[in-house]
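Dear colleague,

Following up on Tuesday's group meeting, I ran the structure prediction for the two-component complex that the binding team flagged. I've pasted the input sequences exactly as they went in, so you can double-check that nothing got truncated or mislabelled along the way. The structure tokens for the whole assembly follow below. Feel free to forward this to whoever is handling the docking comparison.

Inputs:
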Amino acid sequence: MTRAVPSIIALCLLALVIAPLVAVALRGAGVSLGPADWAAVRFTVTQAVLSALISTVLAIPVARALARRRFFGRGALVTLMGAPFLLPAVVAVLGLLAVFGRSGLLNSGLAALGLPPVSIFGLQGVLLAHVFLNLPLAVRMILQGWLAIPAERFRLAQSLGFGPAQMLRHLEAPMLREVVPGVALVILVICLTSFAVVLTLGGGPAATTIELAIYQAVRFDFDLARAAGLAGVQVVICALAALAAWVLMRPAGFGAGLDRQAQIPAPGGWRSMADGATLAAATLFLILPLLAVALRGVPGLADLPPSVLPAALRSVLVALASATLTSAAALALALAVARKPSVLAGAAATLPLATSGLVLGTGLFLIVQPFTPPMTVALPVTILVNMALTLPYLYRILLPQARALRSDYGRLADSLGLQGWSRLRWLILPRLARPLGFGAGIAAALSMGDLGAIALFAGERQATLPLVVQQLTGAYRLEAASAASLVLVTLSFALFWACDAGGRRAAA
Amino acid sequence: MRTTLLAAGLSVIAIPALAETPVLTVLTYDSFTSEWGPGPAIETAFEATCACDLRFVPAGDGAALLARIQLEGAASEADVVLGLDSNLTADAAATGLFAPHGQTVANTLPVDFADPLFLPFDWGWFAFVHDRSKLPQAPTSFDALAASDLKIVIQDPRSSTPGLGLLMWVKAAHGDRAAEVWAALADNIVTVTPGWSEAYGLFLEGEADMVLSYTTSPAYHLIAESDDTKAAALFDEGHYLQIEVAGKLAASDQPELADQFLAFMQTDAFQSVIPQTNWMYPAVTPTAGLPEGFDTFRPAKSLLLSPLDAQAARDPALAEWQAALAR
């Protein structure tokens, strides 16, 4: 009976993703993609692959430095690593402009040195923004991998007289081979479906993504067949990426440790300088735009409209509800896949990444509307859509550690007859608390910032905080909008921090 | 305190009557319904005359409204759709979902605009807005702009109504030369944003010298922020109009109330709210006139493609625009 639960969850998820696609496709007939669409597909894939590669490669030294160095403020820095990912795209863009824009810090510095200015617009701007948004996520996911290597292995390696190169070869490389493909995949698909960042910093029509083409098809042309066709292309690309990641991902097989909180050996000399420089550069890169966002928002805090409060409350409730649901579903799927590889569960946990909030929202709207005015189900639908869209992140974070848990303790637990609730209570939850807390934090914060589904369904009194931000900018009240974004970012971050810290405490 | 108690008491008495109060549902764009938009004042004013409950339902922007009404079809709860612009009305009319408004058209638009299905409620001229203190001499035509090394931000016509408006502006002003104008403008365009607010934000941040907005944008800064540095550049070839309209849905279950609302839309009570909440020109100039500073940038010539011409021009213009800018 309990064995069937993950399959049921997987089927429900697949239905949640596929039914809206079908509903959208049924409203139109015949799909034809023009040359402009294929150009968009090419650009989308190029920028996403580059963004994922750069973010992941840069994240490795940062995660390693964080894993093996102990210094004042390390905990704060690890927490900060959650922040950029949680920024609404448009807010992040404004933060980056304050640093890299025409009158930003970088160009003022260059001008003072008599050097020509650099432009943030174009492919380099898109990559910059995607690395800013995703590098921290990659660092955190890879750091989880480092911390999951049992301390005993490092101790053994040390006693065998391993140098840093051998340590890398025997301990770190196998871990990276298991974790990195999943990380790169998650970032790849995030970048595949972004459009506001890409369009704003891309410079013009050359920087068109599939997502923008979907947006145009739904909003301006009301060509639902074309929207469904484009969404289908997006699904295929993501499925290919997932397949590649699955082929590359191999279990590391370290065996179980005793969970002693032991220091990972940190080589000294130039390596310690290099780690320091890496961390300093990463911190500066992340913190300056964040600081700019904060500075911009503070002056407007005084005259925030009263509607911000109920909207914020609504957003927090939606985020908490969808984070709870996502965590439960992702845990069930990851445990099931760790026990027995399942194409069904894997697909269910990857496909949502490939669809867009817009297609999902439009499809659900078509499904719901014959039965009830969509307004009445605005919040439940938002929770459901957010759950589907955030589940893949949690799943990627949980899966490697669920596998390790299975191979390390599975047989012992089976032989003890530790099953069901008590297995969850005594084995699974304590050992997966750290990634679960981190994942739930990400899910909650992502749901906070979501604008996809609510914009289609929202009634008069159901506005969430991102929608209020949008309305404020629309009314020229940019200062108040910045302040409302600051509230949004602070709340998202607080939610993320609470879940993440909760997970870390439970694991300690 | 006493009045609150009284109000509470009255509302208890009013509950049985409430069940019979007819509800008029108006589908509109986000910023119209927000508390700093025209929505709240108009709701109060209309409810005082109609013995009804006026409900605004927000749905994204003008283009999203059309998509929403096409999604809902005849099953829509909405009675009136408010906020489409004249570049979209041909598509809206083609859905067959709208009924004739039957009103006597009495507007003070700078062009003749009469449509059996759609009634204008406000309008504005698209214009490039700049900062006078940084750019004292703004260009006076598209050609002058293209010849300068000024940097501009525009909106994407595939995702925003101002972006679409700019396509129509170049088309209406330069016709067959449109592709040439776009090719010349390409190196002036810093970037293209998904919507108006991103573009305006970039301009205020100093990322560009000029931004595509409205001739009334400087009035916002003047009236709400006492900042007179913002100005709209007036172009010799004339300025394209955005005319925002409302229409009654044929499937409405409150057709009389919908008519009453459309008639109310042309009265002072509605029109006098528009300038300082929607920052557009009211379709009928209110008896009290326009707020001071609202009329500072008034183009001599207005350009407008008829809804059918705009619909026909859209796809070719979009292709030209993409070809010129995608190099």
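Chain B touches chain A through 57 residues (CB under 8 Å).

Cheers,
M.
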